[in-house]
């Protein structure tokens, strides 16, 4: 079966959801309570231990194989605009996001700002915090990093939604 990484991720979520549903069903039906004097058999929920274990094992195998196929795809498929594998891009994107966030704080700083002094309230000493960098350069770097982040996310999206790989259930 051919699928894209985006399709595989959706299929993986479905398999995990089915597994979690089976696990919840097992939790609620594998044991039950009955008071003394009640007819235990009339209260016994339907539960087939062997069938449940088999279904869960089959889903675990499908999940494991699909995750492995996605991992291989991610470590071997190169994003042309960057020369990175998807795996590398998945490391680069959070790094770039953190850089954008940091530069956003730096760009928003004032060249000189009064510092609140918690220890000497009412004192006559006033402290100021000074930016020790060019705020305009931080703004330019922020814009460049934000643009690069958008470009990198789009490049990853294109590959994840267009490049197919083979997977056998």
Q: Short summary of the structure?
A:
With 169 residues, the protein is mainly alpha-helical. 64% of the residues lie in helices and 11% in strands. It is built from 5 helices and 6 strands.
Walk me through the structure.
It is a single chain. The longest helix is centred in the middle third of the chain and has 28 residues, at 49-76. The chain has 5 helices and 6 strands; from the N terminus they run E-H-H-H-E-E-H-E-E-H-E. The strands form 3 sheets. The chain has a two-stranded antiparallel sheet with strand order 1-6. The protein is mainly alpha-helical. The chain starts with a strand and ends with a strand. The chain is flat. Strand 2 (78-79) and strand 3 (84-85) form a beta hairpin.
> How would you write the strand order of the largest sheet?
1-6
Beta-strand share of residues: 5-15%
Helix and strand element order: EHHHEEHEEHE
| Largest sheet descriptor | 2 strands, antiparallel
**N→C terminal distance:** 8 Å
Number of separate strands: 6
User: Which structural class is indicated by helix and strand composition?
Assistant: mainly alpha
Radius of gyration: 28 Å
Low-confidence spans: pLDDT under 50, at least 5 residues? none
| Number of discrete helical segments | 5
Average pLDDT confidence is 95
**Which descriptor suits the 3D outline?**
flat
Estimate the helix proportion, in percent: 55-70%
């Amino acid at each position: 079966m051919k699928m894209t990484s985006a399709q595989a991720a959706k299929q993986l979520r479905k398999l995990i959801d089915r597994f979690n549903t089976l696990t919840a069903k097992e939790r609620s039906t594998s044991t039950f309570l009955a008071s003394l004097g009640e007819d235990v058999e009339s209260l016994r929920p339907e539960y087939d231990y062997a069938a449940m274990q088999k279904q869960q094992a089959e889903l675990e195998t499908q999940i494991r194989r699909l995750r492995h196929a996605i991992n291989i795809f991610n470590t071997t498929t190169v994003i042309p605009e960057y020369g990175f594998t998807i795996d590398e891009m998945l490391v680069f994107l959070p790094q770039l996001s953190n850089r954008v966030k940091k530069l956003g704080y730096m760009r928003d700083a004032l060249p000189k700002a009064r510092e609140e002094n918690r220890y000497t309230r009412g004192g006559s000493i006033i402290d100021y915090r000074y930016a020790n960098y060019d705020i305009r350069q931080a703004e330019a770097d922020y814009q460049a990093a934000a643009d690069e982040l958008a470009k990198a996310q789009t490049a990853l999206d294109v590959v994840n939604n267009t490049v197919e790989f083979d997977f056998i259930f």
